[in-house]
Amino acid sequence: MTVIRKNQAALTPAEKRAFTNALLELKRNGTYDRFVSAHNAFLMNDSDFGKRVGHRSPSFLPWHRRFLLDFEAELQRVDPKVSIPYWDWTVDRTPGSSLWAADFLGGTARARDGQVLDGPFAYAGGKWAITVGVDRRTYLRRALGAGGTQLPTKAEVNAVLNMAEYDTAPWNSASNGFRNNLEGWRGSNLHNRVHVWVGGQMASAASPNEPVFWLHHAFIDMLWAEWQNRHPKSTYLPATPTPDVVDLHGTMRPWNNVTPADMLDHRKFYTFDTEQAGARQ
Questions:
Q1: What is the C-alpha separation between 260 and 271, in angstroms, rounded?
Q2: Going by C-beta distance under 8 Å and a sequence separation of 6 or more, which residues neighbour residue 10?
Q3: Which of 52, 64, 203, 216 is deepest in the core (most CB within 10 A)?
């Protein structure tokens, strides 16, 4: 079966229920929290001045592509028809977007503590207790747009997509190039800014506690695919062994046999609905 990742705004009510039900089942059986723990450990240990693989490094994009593929495979063990939708935050930019409705991810958060009060992941529903985190609060928290943070715009995204070089030395959060500007340590602060805009657990190393993590990273992955399409002569860098980072043919932890080169063509695994209907405008 061809896996198609769809814009969350185009999901039918049945597709929304199937996705959230699969998430709830992975939470119930313990699989979900294993992914949260893995992401938390990698983000806490990735360093600008030492070994790094999932963040602050060229392998940020292929690492998360494989991370999402593994998670998507677990979702499909629950329901083979489910795939990870993407959240185009250049379009769905407000707390009033359908993404945050009670029939999907929920959105209403209590002002005094950020606790999510509606939707399938509200703590009161008894199915989404937070067990991996930076404090002892066991409920999902959000602060959508708090502090005046604005989600990235189409113009900001296009400016980053127009950068022709994938990455540059020193291959960390000080680098120029497409990867670091997309990751958000330089320039328009794309990926990182979205984490901050959502707030709560999404703004922590344990960000997968927040279900929108998967939709956000599916969109980041889609932007990488679009960058590849715009710059067919550009590729992953570094191409040869380089201290502390994963080169094109280096192995990405925690997998024993996965390299960035293995992850360059997403079409081996899935397509996006835009690729079925024409290029994204």
A1: 18
A2: 273
A3: 52
Could you tell me which CATH number the domain at 4-277 has?
1.10.1280.10
Domain boundaries, the chain: 4-277
* Residue from 24, 60, 62 nearest 42 by CA: 60
For residues 64 and 56, the answer to whether their CB atoms sit within 8 Å is no
At how many degrees (to 10) do helices 13-28 and 60-78 cross?
90
Contacts of residue 83, Cβ cutoff 8 Å, sequence gap at least 6: 3, 4, 5, 6, 72, 75, 76, 270
Q: Which amino acid is at 201?
A: Q
Mind listing the pLDDT tens digit for each residue in 18-52? 999 999 999 999 999 999 999 999 999 999 999 99
Q: The whole model's pTM is what?
A: 0.96
- Contact call for residues 190 and 156 (beta carbons, < 8 A): yes
